[in-house]
Amino acid sequence: MRSPHVAIVTGAARGIGAATAKRLAQDGLTVAVLDLDEDSCKPVVQEIDKAGGRAIGVGADVADEAAVAFAVQRVVEEVGAPTVLVNNAGILRDNLLFKMTADEWDAVINVHLRGAFLMTRAVQRHMTVAAWGRIVNLSSTCALGNRGQANYSAAKAGIQGFTKTLAMELGKFGVTANAIAPGFIETDMTAATAERIGVGFEELKEASLEEIAVKRIGTPDDVAHAVSFLVSPDAGFVSGQVLYVAGGPA
Fold first, then answer.
1. Which CATH superfamily is domain 6-183+219-244 in?
2. pTM for the model
């Protein structure tokens, strides 16, 4: 049965975002698959369509205020007002602090934090009008700190404070806001981390297993399943929380 709700998932052309978009479509939501390049969204949209779901691809830079406003308005006009938002878009610009440039810092903070702010501000008005909404922001276990990722760690810690504040401000309108903090998930982004530190991806995964209680590497579908729960109608009493999807204590 198709849900009346429309979801926007950012950074949805691949990895966690793509898995989340497909899972929400499977749950019956209409999904706007949003990424920097609209063409990159086409495979995910086609897969959703082929499975009987409904989706559109949208290209937008989440750190660009005008682009965000245009993208959200396009979603409203093409498939309806969004009442579910998953802020997943993110980039890496890893470096040790003494070598990190201001541009590397700004790029990461802008996409993760400014992007989540701009998208949420643009979408929340549709949620408050509907008196129902679900916001899920992607944080990370790196919010607790990670060598070579001062920018990324700061952004992901900021996401958690942002999420808790959203829960306080929007709760009276029937809107919940939660964060998911994945641990080691097998994606292109973690492969890039392996390259940064100069080890093979398989070697990095083997090393990571030593610290994961359930003794397996996480997948994008693990995160998508958690998102599915948090945006469901039955999760209305869960708000302002940070859920660590990390295979054990973080």
1. NAD(P)-binding Rossmann-like Domain (3.40.50.720)
2. 0.96
